[in-house]
Write a sequence for this structure.
């Protein structure tokens, strides 16, 4: 269990995290989502007691991280890839961490095996690729077999195989009853891994919800309809209170009523339907919609965006 | 993914009683210091310079002995000559002292360290003990070997000293202790400054640039200021003949260096505690 209450971090004038409150519970993977620079890493560092909050509080297992008796055996964290002395071997890096919490060398070997670094365990970490560094970081997080796990962007730099491995690893850890908190700026990745999400933008909480609720709340759910008598159907639907848009390809995008209602109405009129397909927003779109106002670093082109842009905010 | 089955009971592993101990941290710091090459290199340079330069100067003195005048022969300081390399070795130990802490910051290892052991003062204390003991052993080894090798090379007709010669033991043991204390002082600088290059510059500046600055002071106060400088105290510790009366006695000087080191380490510790890692 991780609990943040009114967590705030200011660096001078910059408000990195502002009044953030959320709860991460055991047994599920909780995604921590937000655009780049939204305060995810800062929040994770505050959970780990590395950065001191300007205001508010965050606890793990009801305690401040600093007061844990066996920190490495209670909380494991991957905070940044390659936060390793480039001259030290993977084995030496894990050994020095293991020793702080009285863990054995055998445990180090087990973890090297688990993350697939046994063959390069004695090589200097400076020669590692980003993916290998990431695996070493994951090994460090799992070293103490902790009940609570934090991963900051764990799939960065991994190949597709590695990504699938991390995905299954996270799910497996949650299934064992652990608390798993994993940050990402990629909604698509979270859709496959997380059960719940904490979404932030510009350091503030936007939403804490389950993945499912996030999808159903999205206004991007609509029904696509094709009919040779599209105009007639459109008028009828609009009389029912639906919002209907005629797309370039001749199909209708119907919002505000579900596919059952559309089908029944079509039968009543009657008009022929060639297609009746409920479209659910991709998680990416739901995410974009939620964070639209809070993206700090906008690209300048918005033309190809999948979202019905309501106009870029200046 | 859809149906939220009741989560299985949290893994309630039994944690060992108590908490992570200082001894655990000592072992970890020892692993850290011996698994990077910079430690090997700086120690090798300390030993080679510390012993080699003294040996070289001793051998040269021996070969020139017959052409030296009587005054030079009488005032010849055999222990100091064999220990002259200490004044070079101090820079290598200083670099190791800085690296022990600054490398953790520049590589980000410090965050892994504090994530495993968040009691920062305790981690820092373990680091000081490990580096302190290691540098003490290396420095004393260097100093004693330099002395015996130097005296061996200063064979007749040159005068040579034994450990029981006046001031000799103090110069040899003190020389090693001086180097160890300077290393701790450098570690304090590394903790405060956190950047390798910056901290090494500060360390070298204290030993080489500060004397030049004080030399520019009016002569009335220059001497009083000068005697507080580490480089001056170092020379004084190694000297067994013709002590400079404007300087502190060797042990008082050494005590001052110890105070400098403690103050810098204490400032470093409090910054380490307060700053974001």
């Amino acid at each position: 269990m991780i609990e943040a209450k009114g967590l705030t971090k200011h660096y001078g004038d910059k408000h990195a995290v502002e009044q953030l409150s959320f709860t991460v519970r055991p047994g599920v993977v909780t995604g921590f989502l937000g655009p780049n620079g939204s305060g995810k890493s800062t929040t994770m560092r505050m959970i780990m007691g590395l950065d001191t909050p300007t205001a508010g509080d965050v606890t793990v297992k009801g305690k401040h991280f600093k007061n844990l008796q066996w920190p490495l055996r209670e909380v494991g964290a991957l905070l940044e890839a390659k936060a390793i002395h480039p001259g030290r071997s993977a084995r030496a890096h894990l050994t020095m961490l293991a020793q702080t919490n009285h863990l054995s060398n055998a445990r180090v070997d087990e973890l090297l095996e688990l993350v697939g670094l046994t063959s390069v365990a004695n090589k200097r970490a400076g020669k590692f690729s980003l993916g290998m560094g990431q695996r070493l970081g994951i090994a460090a997080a799992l070293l103490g077999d902790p009940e609570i796990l934090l991963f900051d962007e764990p799939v960065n730099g991994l190949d597709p195989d590695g990504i699938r491995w991390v995905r299954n690893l996270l799910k497996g850890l949650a299934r064992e009853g652990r608390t798993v908190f994993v940050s990402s700026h990629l909604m698509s990745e979270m859709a496959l891994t997380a059960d719940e999400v904490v979404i932030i933008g510009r350091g503030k909480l936007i939403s804490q919800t389950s993945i499912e609720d996030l999808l159903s709340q999205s206004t991007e759910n609509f029904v696509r309809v094709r009919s040779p008598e599209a105009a007639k159907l459109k008028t009828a639907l609009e009389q029912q209170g639906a919002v209907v848009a005629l797309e370039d390809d001749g199909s209708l995008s119907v919002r505000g009523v579900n596919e059952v209602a559309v089908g029944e109405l079509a039968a009543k009129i009657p008009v022929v339907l060639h297609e009746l397909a409920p479209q659910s927003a991709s998680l990416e779109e739901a995410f974009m919609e939620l964070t639209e106002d809070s993206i700090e670093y906008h690209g300048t082109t918005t033309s190809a965006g999948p979202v019905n842009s309501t106009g870029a905010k200046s | 993914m859809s149906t939220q089955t009741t989560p299985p009971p949290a893994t309630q592993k039994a944690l060992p009683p108590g908490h992570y101990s200082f001894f655990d941290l000592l072992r970890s710091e020892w692993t850290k210091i011996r698994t990077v090459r910079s430690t090997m290199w700086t120690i090798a340079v300390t030993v080679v310079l510390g012993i080699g330069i003294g040996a070289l100067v001793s051998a040269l003195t021996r070969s020139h002995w017959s052409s030296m005048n009587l005054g030079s022969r009488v005032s010849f300081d055999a222990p100091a000559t064999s220990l002259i390399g200490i004044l070079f070795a101090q820079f290598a130990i200083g670099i190791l002292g800085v690296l022990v802490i600054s490398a953790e910051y520049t590589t980000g290892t410090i965050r892994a360290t504090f994530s495993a052991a968040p009691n920062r003062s305790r981690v820092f204390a373990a680091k000081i003990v490990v580096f302190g003991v290691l540098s003490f052993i290396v420095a004393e080894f260097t100093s004693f070997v330099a002395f015996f090798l130097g005296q061996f090379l200063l064979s007749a007709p040159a005068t040579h000293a034994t450990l029981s010669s006046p001031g000799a033991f103090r110069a040899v043991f003190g020389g090693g202790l001086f180097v160890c204390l300077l290393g701790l002082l450098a570690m304090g600088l590394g903790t405060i400054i956190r950047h390798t290059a910056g901290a090494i510059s500060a360390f070298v500046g204290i030993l080489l640039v500060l004397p030049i600055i004080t030399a520019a002071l009016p002569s009335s106060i220059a001497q009083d200021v000068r005697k507080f400088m580490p480089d001056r105290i170092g020379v004084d510790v190694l000297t067994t003949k013709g002590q400079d009366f404007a300087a502190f006695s060797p042990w008082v000087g050494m005590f001052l260096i110890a105070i400098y080191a403690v103050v810098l380490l204490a400032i470093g510790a409090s910054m380490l505690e307060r700053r974001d890692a």
